[in-house]
């Protein structure tokens, strides 16, 4: 799923603002989970979250340094 996620142009390329900074090529966590669910509807919500967390841990995704979750 990771490679397909990176190639899906619907998710990438959005600009988001946190505080005074703008960040390009961003996607929010909810959109990632919805994308995973759309690719494999048999996965539980916990499995979808687990996949996204593995992508974070593996460096496929990264958190914004000034995002509210940090």
List the helices and strands and how they pair.
Layout: H1 2-7, E1 14-18, E2 21-26, H2 29-39, H3 45-58
Antiparallel strand pairs: 1-2
Helix pairs in contact: 2-3
Task: Give a description of the structure.
This protein is of the alpha+beta class. Helix content is 44%, strand content 16%. It has three helices and two strands; from the N terminus they run αββαα. It has a two-stranded antiparallel sheet. A hairpin with a 2-residue loop joins strand 1 (14-18) and strand 2. Helix 2 (29-39) crosses helix 3 (45-58). It is globular, with a radius of gyration of 12 Å. The chain starts with a helix and ends in a 12-residue tail after the last helix.
As a whole number of angstroms, the C-alpha radius of gyration is 12 Å
Please tell me the overall pLDDT: 78
Distance between the termini: 26 Å
Tally the beta strands: 2
Structural class: alpha+beta
Query: Order of strands across the biggest sheet?
Result: 1-2
The shape, in one word, is globular
Helix content: 40-55%
Low-pLDDT ranges: none
| Biggest sheet record | 2 strands, antiparallel
Percentage beta strand: 15-25%
The helix tally amounts to 3
SSE order, as H and E? HEEHH
Give a summary of the structure in a few sentences.
By secondary structure, the protein is of the alpha+beta class. Helix content is 44%, strand content 16%. Helix 2 crosses helix 3.
Could you name the key traits of this structure?
two-stranded antiparallel ribbon
């Amino acid at each position: 799923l990771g490679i397909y996620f990176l190639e899906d142009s619907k998710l990438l390329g959005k600009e988001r603002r946190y505080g005074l900074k703008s960040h390009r090529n961003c996607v929010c966590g909810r959109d990632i989970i919805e994308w995973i669910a759309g690719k494999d509807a048999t996965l539980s919500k916990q499995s979808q979250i687990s996949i996204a967390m593995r992508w974070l841990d593996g460096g496929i995704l990264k958190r914004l340094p000034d995002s509210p979750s940090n």
